[in-house]
Specification:
The protein has 149 residues and is mainly beta. The chain has a single domain (12-146), classed as Immunoglobulin-like. The chain is built from 1 helix and 11 strands, in the order αβββββββββββ. The strands form 2 sheets. Strands 1, 2, 4, 5, 6, 7, 10 and 11 form an 8-stranded mixed β-sheet that branches. A hairpin with a 2-residue loop joins β8 (97-103) and β9. The radius of gyration is 17 Å and the shape is globular.
Amino acid sequence: MFTSAVTYGIKKAKEKAVIPGARAVVRTTDTSPVFYFYFDDKAAGLGKGLFGGNVSNPNQFALIKLDVNKSNRETTIAEFGAFGASQGTSTKAMTTFKSERIRNGLYKVVPSAPLQQGEYCFLASFGAGAFGAGAAGAIDIFDFGVSVE
């Protein structure tokens, strides 16, 4: 913010969403992990959100590669400066995935390409479609790490 102010907004300021801890507790060595999303019971699991539980399928999530520093993981959720502003998760941080409906409320989810070593999260948002609000409007989040040996 200070740099942006000193440069009269030419240098953009960034707002970040932060997850405490440098590593997720859930880890895998598989670069092509398989996830199962369950939405059957609206009173439990991924279907239950803080703001009404509107999440009902994996397409309402983004898979994000997080930036890591020594004490937390983070992603940029907004940038603003003299020439405008943008809000939402950076497309550079997003990783595509494929989902397959197995039965009502059950989906198999796999990354479209092998994941690199690092920290990731699935993030559901109540923001404008396609994660317009990104992490700024997060209502459900699942974090994990990929450790390639």
